[in-house]
Backbone:
């Protein structure tokens, strides 16, 4: 067999490093211009058909120059961004990112370590970030944790540990057949859908989730919770986990944490807190007390791409009992042996604490961001978002055409336009039109939800670029668009 001569061997590295350097600098320049000028840009643009067609082509057989590929990106992809980098993006609950966080991602992918196993710097940065997360959440230093892609993964990771830790059943080995009856998770009807999905995936089925009603503040009703647990015990079911939400996705409501903690102790339940959105609001003195009992949970899930404004994607699960965490996931096949020295030495593999074996260096953007700004700056940014939500609510209260549709909690403000004498269906149509026009005219991007049967505009603010003046503009534009729709109806 003829071995290829070194001069004919190939690589994917550039043939001309200088032109790649120039292109890289151009990309950074373009990003800086983008962020600097974003306030004056439309928040969102409809994607033209020509662009959709360009993004629906067969696999390339031959390559193009990096410069040509970048031109395609600039023409077909960059202009049609989602908009969550813009100061008036308030849809769903999606963070803004920061310049240094983005550059950290570039550095992380340039280093390209698989941050699951081995003796290398990324493993220590990851450990440092998990330790900082424990400090932020006031979890004990012996607790364990793992960075994951986001809140959904953080929740399923915690619920898997909770399930595998149930009693002496050895569910990890024997599966759910080890349990003598149906295992049950309790949460409110306002709980994020990822809890239901997680229950389905970990084998409990949707019938294993008891959704408890909420009070008029959209918080879990603890009287109904007790009644349901007692009825389930009497019927021979196995309640094992209680999920409280620290900031519901719809309205930012905080479940009564203190009481939930007590109930979990009384009935011997694993207490999990979904703080994907709101756990970090504990840094705002106004919400610190309501969230204090979260610090005593068995597990806590929260997102760093929401209220730490770190670029997508990164969330965190903290588990109070390190052994239970490790026992739920650790597995060492022959090809993943750890040694005492060398590259295969070092810290306990992160794959022993979660499902993933391939993990990027997502810790770097969190590490750089926390070092750049420090806890105090984040506390004041989160407080600022909460004040902006309260300010928006005040503007709504002062406008006779508008009404609040939920109490304002943390940084979520739900409101709608109302017209006296109009039926619910007509109001739904009016507010839907307002929402879509706000987005299509590139003004602002709230999203919507339905609360107590009312179609509602929903402004969820985890945006580090928003100013009070953006709230003034939003209200002005909602009223302008609403009046326009009413006049043409
Ligand atoms: C309360 C809550 N839980 C879970 C999630 C899911 O988080 P992620 O989208 O990061 O998976 C969200 C997302 O908004 C949320 O608000």
Residues:
């Amino acid at each position: 067999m003829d071995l290829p001569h070194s001069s004919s061997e190939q690589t994917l590295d550039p043939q001309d490093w200088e032109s790649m350097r120039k292109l890289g600098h151009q990309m950074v320049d373009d990003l800086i211009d983008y962020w600097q000028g974003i306030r004056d840009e439309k928040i969102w643009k409809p994607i033209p058909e020509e662009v959709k067609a360009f993004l629906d082509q067969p696999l390339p057989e031959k390559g193009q120059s990096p410069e040509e590929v970048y031109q395609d990106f600039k023409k077909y992809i960059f202009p049609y961004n989602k908009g969550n980098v813009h100061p008036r993006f308030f849809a769903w609950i999606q963070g803004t990112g920061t310049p240094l966080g983005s550059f950290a991602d570039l550095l992380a992918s340039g280093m390209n370590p698989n941050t699951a196993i081995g003796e290398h710097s990324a493993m220590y940065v990851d450990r440092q970030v998990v330790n900082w997360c424990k400090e932020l959440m006031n979890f004990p230093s012996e607790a364990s944790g793992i960075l994951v892609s986001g809140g959904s993964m953080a929740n399923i990771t915690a619920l898997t540990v909770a399930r595998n830790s149930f009693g002496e059943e050895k569910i990890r080995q024997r599966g759910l057949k080890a349990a003598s009856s149906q295992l049950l998770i309790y949460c409110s009807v306002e709980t994020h859908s990822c809890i239901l999905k997680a229950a389905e995936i970990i084998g409990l089925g949707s019938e294993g989730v008891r959704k408890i009603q909420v009070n008029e503040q959209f918080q879990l009703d603890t009287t109904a919770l007790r009644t349901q647990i007692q009825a389930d015990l009497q019927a021979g079911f196995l309640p094992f986990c209680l999920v409280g939400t620290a900031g519901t996705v719809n309205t930012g409501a905080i479940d009564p944490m203190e009481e939930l903690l007590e109930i979990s102790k009384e009935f011997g339940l694993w207490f999990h807190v979904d703080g994907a959105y709101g756990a970090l609001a504990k840094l705002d003195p106004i919400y610190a007390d309501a969230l204090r009992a979260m610090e005593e949970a068995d597990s806590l899930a929260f997102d760093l791409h929401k209220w730490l404004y770190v670029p997508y994607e990164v969330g965190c699960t903290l588990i109070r009992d390190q052994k239970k965490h490790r026992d739920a996931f650790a597995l060492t096949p022959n090809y993943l042996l750890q040694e005492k020295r060398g590259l295969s030495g070092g810290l306990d593999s992160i794959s022993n604490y979660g499902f993933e074996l391939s993990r990027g260096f997502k810790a770097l953007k969190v590490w750089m961001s926390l070092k750049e700004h420090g806890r105090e700056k984040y506390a004041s940014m989160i407080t600022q978002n909460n004040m902006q939500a309260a300010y928006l609510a005040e503007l709504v209260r002062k406008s006779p055409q508008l009404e609040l549709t939920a109490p304002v909690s943390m940084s979520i403000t739900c409101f709608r336009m109302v017209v006296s004498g109009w039926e619910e269906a007509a109001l739904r149509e009016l507010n839907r039109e307002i929402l879509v026009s706000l987005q299509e005219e590139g003004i602002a991007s709230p999203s919507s939800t339905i609360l107590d049967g009312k179609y509602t505009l929903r402004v969820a603010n985890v945006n580090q670029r928003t100013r009070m003046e953006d709230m003034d503009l939003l209200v002005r534009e909602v009223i302008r668009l609403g009046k326009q729709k009413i006049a043409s109806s």
